[in-house]
Structure formats: C-alpha cells, structure tokens
C-alpha cells in the first residue's frame, strides 16, 4: 500500500504531464489550421501544372525525343524511395505508418532482386530506417532549422533527386508521405515521381479548342516544366505531411490528456480511500483505548 | 474594354485573381501582351516584370520561373516567385543575381553553363528594367 505522500506526489506528476499534453494539443490545433491553409493555397498551382503538363505530355510522349523524366530510363532495376517524415515525435502513428509502408515496399523490391536506395527527408524516418537499411540510405535532409515548409526546401530536395537521376543513379523514384484526409485520418501514400505519371488529359472537356500554340516548342517547355513539376510534387507532399503531422499529434495528445484525466481520477479515489481508512483506524484506536479504561 | 479572368499562382498561394483588360508577360522568347479572346497559347517565363492592367493603375510584379497559359477560359500564369515590385527590395534582387553568378561558376558542363549564363543575363536585364521603372516612378 502506497503511503499518502507517495500518492500525492504521483497525482501531482500526472497532473503536470496532463498540462503538457493539453498544451501540445492546443499548439498542434493552431499549427494544423495554418498547415491546412498552406496545403490548400498550394493546390491551384499543382493542379494547373498537372493539367498543362498532361496536355503537353499526351502530345509528345510517343515521340523519340521525349525527355527521360517523363518516359523513365526504360528499366526498373534501381528504385529510389523518398521518405518524407516529421522532425519530431509524439504524434501517434504518423511517422511509424509512413516508415512501415516504406519498409514493406523496400523489402518486397529487394525480394525481387532490385536495388533499393533510400532518401530520407525528416529526422524521424531516418532514425527508424537507419538500423535496418543502413547501406541503402543514400542521403538525408533534415528540415529542423526551418519554420514551416517553403517552396525553396522542396526545390532543394527536387534538385538533389534530379541530379541523382541525371547521373543515372536510379530508374524509378517513389515518394512516401501521409495524405491528409481529416484530423483523425491520415493515409500513408506512395506516389511515383519518376517516370512522371499524369492523369490522361481531359480531351473531352477541352475538346477541339485545346490546340495550343507553344513558345518555345513543346519539347523545350516540357524539358523546362518537368523538373519544376518534381519540385511541386515534393512540395505538395511536404505540405500534406505537415498537415497530417499536426492532425496526428492533435489526436494523439487529445488521447493522452484524456488518459491522464482517467488516471488522476483513479488515483484521487485511492488517495481519499487511504486517507479515510487511516482516520477510521486512528478513531478506533482512541475509542478502544478509552473503553479499556 | 473587354475584360478576361486572370490568375497569377505561386506554389505557396494564389497571388492574384480577377478580371483584367490586359496582362503583359515576360515570355522566354520576348514579352507579350494578352488581351481578351487570345488564342490558346503556352509559353515559359523568363525572370522579369509582369504588368497587370485592369481597374485602377497598372500593377507590376516581379516573376521568375514558370509558365503562362492562355485559353478561352482566361489566362493563368504559374510562377515560382511572384513579388509585387513595391515589396521587392534591391538587395533581394542583388542576392538572386549573386546566386545566379555562383551557379554559372559552379556549372560543370557547357550545356548547363550556357543555360545558367542565359538565366543570369535575363535576371540582370530584369533588374535594370526594374531600376529604370523605379526612377520614372519617383
């Protein structure tokens, strides 16, 4: 039986923890709103980019001079897995579910005899994958110093990926991140970046009027836009990830706060019972002492 | 004068959206003006000044990297950077030019060097144009 003092200390410590988790939940809620706004604001750019690229790519992809970023190298021997995770923990299963998806993919690719390379963005993913895939990890980018994600960050990552592709270090690139659906639901997703895939151009919607004039030529525009598209896709994934992270942290911290509340209730009950028992015991001692006289 | 819907989008947000009468875009092969009812047209951008003419005085923005798409629904410009000239500081631009210069020096093969050199030249001429614009404004 714990003494009263022990119980008091334990209750105080749980209360302190509860305050922290509560604060973290509120911070996450505020950040979530901002992250969601950023993700929404970035959507039009990605959409337009995709529709224009889809149009041009549809016209040119059959040609012999189609850029490699679009058609790929024609092989799928070496895979680059780009893992986008958070810099910080305490956000439920957010990081681990992305890492699990990556690990499954990596193991199945390696089982097929393919070469796997891993590019970690974010500290948590690197920490989780380091032990098992030490040799496969080719690069790590941490975004810890930055407040929020900027397009420049995405551009730097995309440039690295582009340079690696140009050097022939991989054939297929896939990025892993968490798609934000709602505060309680984030879906770990794999998206293929290279060769680029586009939704088939909506030929029916634009119809015959979609005869564009291109300046400079289609091939030049495509060569200019594909690397940009890479950055846009990475940026979109980073923003989705940011919103997902905050959402996951918010619900995880909400749970933690509630659990702490339950614990406090239970321990307060034990504390009061113990106190009551001690008072009763002392009373009995006094009364039985008086009776004995 | 006839107006048409125009959108200027940067990766981070929608910068401008509304009906305008004319937009002058710094295209990769020269500046061009877009009026209502332009034929479907796609062009990449060079760094430079984009001018929006609509209600009130013309709005000028510095844009770099991206493309413009004109279609019957209107004009859309996607730019990696879009800063109103009033907010663009000279040192900002100077830094961009310095970065571009370093890029030229870092280039390993001729093709990238040539393209970076071209980018640098476009950037410097844009800077000169902006400076001239600032002088006439005062």
UniProtKB/TrEMBL annotation, chain A:
Pfam families, per database record: ATP-synt (PF00231)
CDD domains recorded: F1-ATPase_gamma
Cross-referenced HAMAP family: ATP_synth_gamma_bact
Keyword Repeat tagged: no
Subcellular location: Cell membrane; Membrane
Family under the similarity heading: Belongs to the ATPase gamma chain family.
Spans traversing the lipid bilayer: none
Gene: atpG
UniProt organism field: Ancylobacter vacuolatus
Protein name from the UniProt record: ATP synthase gamma chain
Complexes and interactors: F-type ATPases have 2 components, CF(1) - the catalytic core - and CF(0) - the membrane proton channel. CF(1) has five subunits: alpha(3), beta(3), gamma(1), delta(1), epsilon(1). CF(0) has three main subunits: a, b and c.
Superkingdom of the source species: Bacteria
Lineage: Bacteria, Pseudomonadati, Pseudomonadota, Alphaproteobacteria, Hyphomicrobiales
Keywords of this entry: ATP synthesis, Cell membrane, CF(1), Hydrogen ion transport, Ion transport, Membrane, Transport
SUPFAM superfamilies (UniProt xref): ATP synthase (F1-ATPase), gamma subunit
Recorded topology in the membrane: Peripheral membrane protein
General function of this protein: Produces ATP from ADP in the presence of a proton gradient across the membrane. The gamma chain is believed to be important in regulating ATPase activity and the flow of protons through the CF(0) complex.
Gene3D superfamilies tied to this protein: 3.40.1380.10, ATP synthase, gamma subunit, helix hairpin domain (1.10.287.80)
Main location: membrane
TrEMBL record, chain B:
Gene that produces this protein: atpC
Entry function: Produces ATP from ADP in the presence of a proton gradient across the membrane.
Family the UniProt entry places it in: Belongs to the ATPase epsilon chain family.
Chief location of this protein within or outside the cell: membrane
Protein name, UniProt field: ATP synthase epsilon chain
Classification lineage: Bacteria, Pseudomonadati, Pseudomonadota, Alphaproteobacteria, Hyphomicrobiales
Topology in the lipid bilayer: Peripheral membrane protein
Gene3D superfamilies assigned to the protein according to its UniProt record, in alphabetical order: F0F1 ATP synthase delta/epsilon subunit, N-terminal (2.60.15.10)
InterPro entries recorded: ATP_synth_F1_dsu/esu, ATP_synth_F1_dsu/esu_N, ATPsynth_dsu/esu_N
NCBIfam families with a match to the protein in the record: ATP_synt_epsi, PRK00571.2-4
Span of domain ATP synthase F1 complex delta/epsilon subunit N-terminal: 5-82
Subunit structure, interactors included: F-type ATPases have 2 components, CF(1) - the catalytic core - and CF(0) - the membrane proton channel. CF(1) has five subunits: alpha(3), beta(3), gamma(1), delta(1), epsilon(1). CF(0) has three main subunits: a, b and c.
Keywords: ATP synthesis, Cell membrane, CF(1), Coiled coil, Hydrogen ion transport, Ion transport, Membrane, Transport
Pfam family, one: ATP-synt_DE_N
Coiled-coil features, chain-numbered ranges: 90-117
Subcellular location: Cell membrane; Endomembrane system
SUPFAM superfamilies referenced in this protein's UniProt entry, alphabetically: Epsilon subunit of F1F0-ATP synthase N-terminal domain
TM regions (residue ranges): none
């Amino acid at each position: 039986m714990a003494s009263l003092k022990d119980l008091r200390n334990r209750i105080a410590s749980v209360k302190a923890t509860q305050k922290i988790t509560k604060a973290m939940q509120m911070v996450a809620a505020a950040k979530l709103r901002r992250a969601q706004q950023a993700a929404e604001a970035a959507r039009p750019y990605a959409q337009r980019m995709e529709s224009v690229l889809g149009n041009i790519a549809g016209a040119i992809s059959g040609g012999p001079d189609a850029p490699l970023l679009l058609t790929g190298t024609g092989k799928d021997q070496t895979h680059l897995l780009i893992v986008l995770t958070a810099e910080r923990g305490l956000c439920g299963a957010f990081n681990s579910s992305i890492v699990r998806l990556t690990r499954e993919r990596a193991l199945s690719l390696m089982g097929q005899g393919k070469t796997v390379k891993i590019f970690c963005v974010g500290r948590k993913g690197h920490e989780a994958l380091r032990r098992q895939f030490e040799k496969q990890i080719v690069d790590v980018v941490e975004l810890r110093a930055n407040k929020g994600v900027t397009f420049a960050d995405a551009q730097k990552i995309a440039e690295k990926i582009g340079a690696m592709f140009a050097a022939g270090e991989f054939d297929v690139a896939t990025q892993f991140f968490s798609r934000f659906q709602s505060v309680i639901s984030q879906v770990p997703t794999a998206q293929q970046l290279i060769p680029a895939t586009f939704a088939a151009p909506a030929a029916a919607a634009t119809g015959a009027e979609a005869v564009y004039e291109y300046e400079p030529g289609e091939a030049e525009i495509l060569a200019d836009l594909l690397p940009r598209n890479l950055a846009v896709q990475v940026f979109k994934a980073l923003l989705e990830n940011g919103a997902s992270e905050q959402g996951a942290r918010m619900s995880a911290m909400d749970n933690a706060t509630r659990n702490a509340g339950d614990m406090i209730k239970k321990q307060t009950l034990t504390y009061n019972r113990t106190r009551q028992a001690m008072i009763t015991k002392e009373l009995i001692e006094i009364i039985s002492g008086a009776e004995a006289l | 004068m006839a107006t048409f819907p125009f959108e200027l989008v940067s990766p981070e947000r929608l910068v401008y959206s509304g009906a305008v009468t004319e937009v002058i875009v710094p295209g990769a092969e020269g500046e061009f003006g877009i009026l209502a009812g332009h034929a479907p047209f796609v062009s990449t951008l060079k760094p430079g000044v984009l001018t929006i003419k609509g209600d009130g005085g013309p709005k000028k923005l510095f844009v770099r990297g991206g493309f413009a798409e004109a279609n019957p629904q209107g004009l859309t410009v996607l730019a990696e950077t879009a800063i109103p000239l009033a907010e663009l500081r000279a040192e900002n631009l100077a830094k961009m030019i310095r970065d571009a210069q370093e890029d030229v020096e870092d280039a390993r093969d001729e093709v990238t060097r040539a393209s970076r050199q071209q980018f640098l030249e476009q950037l410097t001429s844009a800077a000169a144009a902006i400076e001239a614009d600032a002088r006439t404004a005062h």
